[in-house]
Amino acid sequence: MSTVTRTWLAFAALGTGMIHLALVISSPLPIAAVLLLLGVVEFGWGVMTFMRERIAYPRWVLFGALLPILLWGLLTAAATALQAPTVASSLGLTALGLATLLELFVAVVLAVQLRRGVDFSAPSRMPSAGRYLTGLLIGGIAVAALTTPALAATEAGVYAQPHGEHSDSFVPRVGTTDTSVLDLPEHPGH
User: Fold this and answer.
1) Is residue 187 part of a domain?
2) Which of 77, 127, 151, 173 pairs as cysteine with 131 (C-beta 3.0–4.6 A)?
3) CA distances (Å), 188 to each of 13, 158, 161, in order?
4) Which residues span the domain enclosing 24?
5) Helix (H, G, I), strand (E, B) or coil at 1
6) What is the DSSP letter of 112?
């Protein structure tokens, strides 16, 4: 497997992990625990994939990439059957849909590589510097283009303070630890 492909898989895992971690805030507790576990594992695998010259545990990662898609489908079916749409809707279609695209990318690439009989224990092939940097740039932009709107669609993204709208009055008054005296301009929802 080439270094560029390995890097793209790592980017996709990091993006998916961030989306799942951002969804923890708005999720009911049992779903939040699963999302937290998925997000930490995906983020950790992405970092490990960047650091190592080979793909670790490709069969487990293939299963792990498909597992959140299966769980989302089961949750949606259960919420529909129990007539509890708020359970599934608390997760957000946009965020989970874009996370699913990244997960499918990882699953398809690994499935194709496994089918070809690629030796995952061998170090990745290193392309030329120009090709590697181009691949790194394309992968980073693609994952950022998918992850940014997904993160914005989460509760954390909805209540984020837009850039450039902070003022000097966003400080506590001297001599007090009471947070009720904070002046929060144009910052509804908290």
Assistant:
1) no
2) 127
3) 33, 11, 10
4) 3-158
5) coil
6) H
Whether 45 is covered by a domain: the verdict is yes
CA distance 98 to 26: 17
Specify the pLDDT at position 12: 93
Q: What SS3 class is residue 54?
A: coil
Q: How many CB atoms lie within 10 A of CB 165?
A: 10
pLDDT computed for residue 185 by the predictor: 53
Q: How far apart are CA 132 and CA 176, in angstroms?
A: 53
133 in any annotated domain: yes
Percent pLDDT > 70 in the chain is 81
Residue 51, token pair as written in the block: 């650091």
Residue 7 within any structural domain of the chain: yes
Number of domains in the chain: 1
- Which 3 state secondary structure label does DSSP give 119? coil
Q: At what angle do helices 93-116 and 58-81 cross, to 10 degrees?
A: 140
Residue type, 156: A
Stated pTM of the model:
0.77
